[in-house]
Structures are given as C-alpha cells and as structure tokens.
Amino acid sequence: MNNPQPGMQLVKEFRPILLPWIGAVIAGSLIVLKPLVDGVGLETLLIMVVSYGFLGGLALVPTMVFGQEVHDRTLSLLLVQPVGRSRIWRQKMLVAAGAVIAGVGAEVALLAGISTWYPGGELWEAVQTSFRGEQLFLSGVFLVATVCSSGFWTLEAGSIVGGVVFATASQLVTALALVPVWERIRSYDDPFRDPLNFIIIGVMGLIYSGLFLWLGWRKFVRLELRDARSVASGNSSSLARRWPARALLGSRPESPVLNLVRKEIWLQKPIAQLAGAFVVFWCGVVVLQRLRPNQDITYLFDVVTCLFAPVSALLAGCISLGEERSLNLSLSQMALPFSAPAQWLLKLLVSLGTAAVLSLGLPILLFAITGGILELHGSGLMNPKDEGILGLGLVSALMFLLGFWASTLSGNTVRAAIVAIVGVITLPALALLGIYWGTLFLKAEGIGSQNEQIKAGLWITAAGALILMLSQSLIQFRRWQGGRSQLLSYSLLLAGVVLFVAVGTASLGFLML
Amino acid sequence: MLLQINFKSGKPVYLQVVDQIKAAAASGAVQSGEPLPSIRPLAEELRVNRNTIAKAYTELENQGIIETLPGKGCFVKPNNSPLKKEVRRKLLTEEIDHVIVQAHHLQVPPDEFLNLVRERQAAMQERQNSHDKGL
Amino acid sequence: MNNTTPAIEIKDLVYTYGRSDAVHGLNLTVPAGGCYGLFGRNGAGKTTTMKCLLNLLRPRSGIVRLFGMDPAKQEVEVKRRLAYVPDYVAFYPWMSVRETLDYLASFRAHWNRDTERGLLDRFQLDQRQQTSTLSKGQKTQVALVAAICPEPDLLLLDEPTSGLDPIVRREFIETVIGAYQESDPGNRTILVSTHLISEFEGLIDEFTIMNKGREVLTLGADQARDRYQKIRARFATNAPETTFPGALRQRRNARELEIIANGGGPEILDQLRRLSPESLTTEALTLEEVFIATLQ
After folding, report:
1. 3 state SS of C33
2. How far apart are CA B64 and CA B61, in angstroms?
C-alpha cells in the first residue's frame, strides 16, 4: 500500500533544528547595528553577541540533530523501525551539513540584501573591521569540525549541552596539543602571516572532521540503548559524577534553610566541573607559555575565558530549576513546608553566587595569579581601556538572568538554555532597535542624540527588563506548571516591554538632558 | 448467551467454552437455528485468545453440536444429532462419574444425591418450558 | 510461509551490564502463530531480552534468531516483520497523532488504512492532537495502532498495560485479540513481557517464567492450569502433620490444610482422602498464582 517515503523522514529532521538555525542567522545579521554602537563603547558586546550567536547557533544545529532524539527519548522509536542505521546516520549528517551551509548562505544573502539600502559601503566596512580574515577562516574550520564531530560527541555525552561543550572542548584541546608539535617543525612570530599555516590548519581540520565523522558513524551503528530513558545511563546531566565532598554537603536535620542551600549548591555541581576543566585548560596554557617564552600565546586566555564565562553563567542560571524539573524533584520540593518565594529567592541567590564566583571571579583570579607568573602585558581582556571584561561581564550576567528566567518557564535545562540563548540575541537587538528608532524620532524633531542619552536609555531598558523578568520568574515559580503558551506569552511581553521602554527612553531622552 | 471463563477450574479454556455452549444448547438458552457469536467478538468479550475460540468451535463442530454455514456463521444443530447414541451416553457417563466423586467428597449420601438429581431435572424442564413460551 | 520455523529462538543468551536486569543463559522458543507470555519479577531480564531481539542491545554470547534470521546481521529484514510496543512510549513531541502515524507508516511497505481508521475511532483519538499533550494511555494506544496497522508477523509487547487505567487496559487487550489476530491468525505471533499476568491470562497459549536472567519454567497455559492445583482440606480434629511428596508448598492452620501441588495432585488427593477429611476441595491455579508459587 505505502512505499517507504524517505522524503517525509528528512522533513522531520529539520523541525528540531529550526529554532537554533533562525537564531544563528538573526544573530549574525545583528552586525548591521555596528555603526549604531560605535563610540558608545559597546562594540565588544555586539561583536560577542554576533559571533557567539552565529557560531553557537550553527554549532547547535548539528548537535540538535542527534541531541533532540536523545533528549526526547525517541531514539528507541527510531531504531526499532525497519531502516538501516547507516542510512539514518547519513540522513542526519546530510541534514546537519545542509542546514549549516544554508545558514552561512542565508547570512551572506541577508547581509548582501541589507547592505543595498544601508548608507554607503558602511556595512562591509563594519564587517571587515570587526572580523579579521583569519577569524573567519578559523570559524569556517570550526563549523566543519563541529558538523562532523557533533554526532559522536552528542552520543558520548548523552545530552545536547554536553554535546556542544565536548565538541568545542575537544577541538580546543586538539589545537592546543598540536601547536607545540607544529612549532617543532616551523617557528614563527605571527602565525597568520604565513599562508602555509592556513593550509596546515585546514588539513588538520579535515583530518579531525573525517576521524570524528567515522567514529560517530561507528558509535551510532553499534549503539546500545540500555535504559529507555537515556543514552548515557543515570543523571541527565552528563557531567554528573561522584561528588567527594558529600560529607560537607550532606543534609543534616537542623535548619531547613541550610539544607536547602546545600541542596542548591549540590545542583550546581556540573558548573563546578566545567570550572575544573577550565582551570585545567588554563594551567595547560600557562605551562605551554613557559616552555615557549619567545612566542605570545596569552590570547588563548582571552579566548577560553570568553567561551567559559557566558556558558557557565548560562548553565548556572538554568540548572537550578532545570535539573530539578527534569529529575521530577520539583513536585516534592514544592510540597515542602517552605514558602515558594523564599525557595525562589534562595535559588536565585545561590545560582547568582555560583555564577559570580565561578564565571567571573575565577577567570579574574586566574588572570591575577598568571599575571605574576607570566608578566602579562596587559593586552586583551585585562586591558581596562578596551572594556573587554566589562562586556564579558554584561554578556555573562545577561546569560545568567535569561537562563534563570527561562528555566522557570520551561521544563528542563536544555530548553531553558536554548530559550536563553535566543533571548540573549533578541533582547539586546530589540533594545538597540528601540534606541535607534527613538533617535530617529529625535532627529526628525531636530534634536541630536548624544552618547550619554543612548547609554542612559539602555540602562533604563535593562533595569526595566530585569524587574519584569524577575517578577515573571517568581510568579511562574509559584505556579510551577509551565507550558509552551506560557513561555510564548511571557517572552512576547518581555520583548514588547524592552522595545517600548527603549523607544520611549530614547525619544523622551531630550527631557532628561 | 453469556459465557464465563473460570481460570481456576483447571479445565482448558476451550473445553469450558465447548461445555458452556453445549449446556446452553441443552437448556434452550440457544435454540437450534440461532446464530452463535462469531469468533472475534467472542474472543474479545471473554478476553481469550482467538485461536482458543476457534478451537472450541472446531471441537463443537466435530461433536456435531454446531454447524458452520459459509457466509452466514455458526448455528446450533437441531437436537437430533448425528452422533451415535452410545457416544452421547459415554459423554454423559463421564460427567456423571465426576459428579459422583464430588458427592462423595461433600459427603452427600446416595439417596439424597438421586433426589437432588430429580429436583434439578424438574427445574431444568421448567426453565425450558418458560423459554419456549417466549419469556 | 514456513510454519515450522519458530518466530523467536533464543539459545544460551548472555547479556550483562552492571548488576540489574542481566540475562545469564536464557533459552526460549516461541512458535509461530500463538501468544507467548514472558513473566518475571522486576530486574529478571525480560526487557533486556526484548532489547536483544530488537538489536537495541548486543548479546555477549548466545544465539538470537527471529524467523531464522539474526537481528544484528539482518536488522532491517527482521524489523520489517515485527512491530514493537514499548513500556515507555516516546514520540516526537511536536508531531500530531496524524503526523506520527504517517511518519511511522513511511517506513513500512504495507499499512492497513482501514484498520487504522477503525482503531482511531474506537480509541476516540483526535488525530490533530499533539503527542506531547496525550496521556500515557493515549500514547500507548497510538503506539498500538502504529504496531497493528502494518500487520506484521510478530508483535512484541513490553509491559504494555502498566500504568493504564482498567478501561484502557481492557480495550488494549481486546484490540490485540481482535484487530491483530483477525487476518492470517495462524501466522501472527505475539510475545508479551509483563508482570500483570492476570490481565493476559486468557490470551496466553504458552509462557516462560524468568528469574535472575534464566528461564525457570516453560509450560503451556492449559497444561499449567491442569498441573498446578490448590487443594484444601478441613479435618474434624487437628490437621495431620505429614508432608506430602509432590507438594510445592503446604500450609497448616489448626484444622485446615492447604497444599499447592505441582503435578502430583491426584496422588495427594488420594492420600488426603485416606485421612478422612471433613471437606476436600481442589481448584486450579491461575497463571499469576503459578508465577507466585514458582518464584516464592
């Protein structure tokens, strides 16, 4: 009656990756706002949002292809169908590669389209000043490597978040390990002056991609589903292992507050593990630098901090409620005789504390210590003139806040993280858009806008958004039952408020000054 | 005709179905010419395997209790069954032996037992009469 | 169609990972065209066995054959002839019921649309409803529809009725009996792994009880009900203390004696009759009671 229809099966693959794909393309196109923020001191922030959003979103795409099945536990549904595993693998990789290519293509097309009505050649100038050639090349290698290796890493980690983290970390570790090997053969001052290095990096990238593509295929074909509920058995957070300080953090029958605090800290375990990995990597770079005094690789500190801080802040925000919900503990938590607002506040404070200490405090501490050991020249992130660390702090804080807000609205860590990532792209974009319209309005009135005004407008918008998010989060926490419609309506409300306040403060700004 | 399966009786399910249909035919609950429920709905109703019901119907057909008319279903055969009289007697003798053993267990003395038999026969006759009257 | 090839053949299956739900040398043969029950306590290895049949787990050693084929080597061929209803049903949450059924149908060469329509009506399922909003019972119903419509030769049910309310449970069993076995009943095989044995009592032709990864008892259902008897006797004075050979278990309480017999029923009855009890009754064990008696 019916013949097997592969077409329908391909279409189904695209659905879960739609959200990160759209997010990535939108994030990339935010570069059009660059001229607006020039001189306001937020270039770093914008560059970060654009690059994280675009690369991160497109890195999520191949991860989601497998990750969604793992997360929704539909792998067993797929694997009992009369279809070969190699074929499933091929379909998924095709979809992942196609989507990433389409994403890049769509981005280029979008920017080309926007640039036609953009004044002058400003757009391409903006792009060129923001991103050096080698950064674009490395991003390309990163994308190819991630597409090919995400299948393996997602299955290995057993979760989407784990998949992205492992895939990225693995690339960084490989790069770090190969640098000294390559230097044995050739030494150089600026690695990117020599075109041969580009070729070498490209080739290594291809070898890495091919290797992990094969490893991933092998893993998938021989995959065993021991527990119907997860590929990696046990905790849904792949980074959970035995916690040695259990004695310290074990609950005792004294004050409930202390026990709740202990429980909250225990839930933050994966971030501590991520921080551990960060410290190990940091030490590795320090050692490498000591072995190689002629050549400055301190930019690696910046790179890895820029990766670590926002991600760990995001996780810190999401995990408290996200893990509790996915482990179905929140129901019994809510039944405890401890008021909901108090529990909410406790969660907020503990997660905030973790984020502050680990995401920002730890890198700053490491920078200070390393400064003594390695005589850093004060370039990069620690340069106070560049406001790099401020931008990073802002992005991290935003990630944390959105993560916390999103996790009260949706059921689990991963969904919250995705929503938060989308939010961290769209909300600043909306704020900037609002400011832009406001200043247009002012121009029409014949009043010029000033940087102070714009900054003030952004701060007010941020404050308003903060208050709204916190209150929404509290209301939702007490109600406990989230839902997609709830999430949608709250997000729209938030977006609308951000836009409105931004426009309002910008256009009324002339009253303030 | 309502059948009931007792898993505790130790008797194979299909035999229980056979016996109950035989009893229904004998007591007039199902008249000759009346259609029996078809296999699938009966299996679903009793929640037993389809093959079990099929086996029961086959057995009933072998014993000559029912007949299958293609396209129309299974019907109870009229009372003059082609089974030889001795075979019928033999079937009944088996049942009687079983009851006699039971009576012994329950310590019902033989005279009382025979009286009981006559009582039950009279009751059945009455049931048959009221059924024939169309009640 | 070769009727002598068993639907499932398992010889000395071994699968171990960690301590629970392992299989230590299981032997099982499921003939074609019947309903076979796999009973066991939690962690006995039933689910592991099922997963080995579906190539979701690879056996450490032993032979697994479905219709004579190795599910690891001829995975697609084997799966074309079977359908699976798991205990934990997961669908793609964004799909509706209709989309899910279409998606699963796209893998199959054969799909009976009439049966599908009939079952959806019977279960009163709204085709446009998203699967993420379905209750557990409804999800199981959709999974059952998806398993029956391709009319496979083998139906694998893993704890299919756990967590369902009694009405849905009944409908489930009736559907398996009716819709699944309707056409070509001689070649349709069912393997049910469950510990709700009383539910499937009438459906089972033959069963195997598993414990700690091995088969403990394999018997036909009618045979079992014939062999296992619960004999109760009441005496005028205190019940005798004799042990009865052939008794699986016996309980004594002042004047009453209860014996579970495994095959030696008539002999025990004779023995008891010689002791002149006041009353003597015997009844067969249901399959669930056989299960309990075997494993306790």
Report:
1. coil
2. 5
- Helices and strands (H, E) in chain B, number of each type: 5, 2
Chain C residues inside the 8 Å CB shell of A4: 106-109
DSSP-derived secondary structure for C118-162: HHHHHHT--TTSBGGGS-HHHHHHHHHHHHHTT--SEEEEESTTT
Q: Which two tokens stand for residue C268?
A: 């025990």
Cα distance between the two ends of chain B: 15
Q: Are strands C35-40 and C189-194 parallel, antiparallel or unpaired?
A: parallel
Residue pair C91/C130 in contact (Cβ under 8 Å)? The answer is no
Distance of CA B15 to the CA centre of its chain: 10
Supply the pLDDT for residue A244.
Answer: 35
In sequence order, what DSSP letters do the residues of A279-322 get, joined into one string?
HHHHHHHHHHHHH-TTS--THHHHHHHHHHHHHHHHHHHHHHHH
Q: How far apart are CA C3 and CA C265, in angstroms?
A: 35
| pLDDT-wise least confident of A231-245, C6-20, C269-283 | A231-245
- What is the C-alpha end-to-end distance of chain A, expressed in Å? 75
Residue-wise pLDDT tens digits, A200-231 = 888 889 999 999 999 999 999 999 887 755 44
- With touching defined as 3+ CB pairs under 8 A, do chains B and A touch? no
Please state the φ and ψ torsions of residue A343, each to the nearest 5 degrees.
-60, -40
Helices A413-444 + A160-185 axis angle, to 10: 80
Task: Give the tens place of pLDDT for each residue, A57-105.
Answer: 898 899 989 888 887 788 889 999 999 999 999 999 999 999 999 999 9
Under 8 Å between Cβ of A145 and A170: no
User: In this structure, are residues A91 and A9 in contact, taking their beta carbons and an 8 Å threshold?
Assistant: yes
Predicted TM-score (pTM) of this structure = 0.76
Q: Which of B10, B40, B47 sits opposite C203 (nearest CB)?
A: B47
Q: How many CB pairs under 8 A join A and C?
A: 80
DSSP 8-class letter at B38: P
* Partner residues linked to C256 by β-bridges: C234, C253
Q: Which residue type, as a one-letter code, is found at position A68? A: Q
Inter-chain touch C57–A226, beta carbons under 8 Å: yes
Model ipTM value: 0.85
Return the structure tokens found at A122. Answer: 């400003």
Residues 6+ apart with CB under 8 A from A124: A115
Please enumerate residues of C whose Cβ is less than 8 A from a Cβ of B. 33-35, 170, 173-174, 177-178, 181-182, 185, 201-205, 221-222, 225-226, 229, 273, 278-287
**Residues in contact with A151: Cβ distance below 8 Å, sequence separation at least 6, in sequence order:** A62, A65, A66, A89, A92, A93, A96, A212, A213, A216, A217, A219, A220
What is the SS3 string spanning A46-112?
HHHHHHHHHHHHHHHHHHHHHHHHHHHCCHHHHHCCCCCHHHHHHHHHHHHHHHHHHHHHHHHHHHH
Contacts of C104 in chain A (CB under 8 A): 81
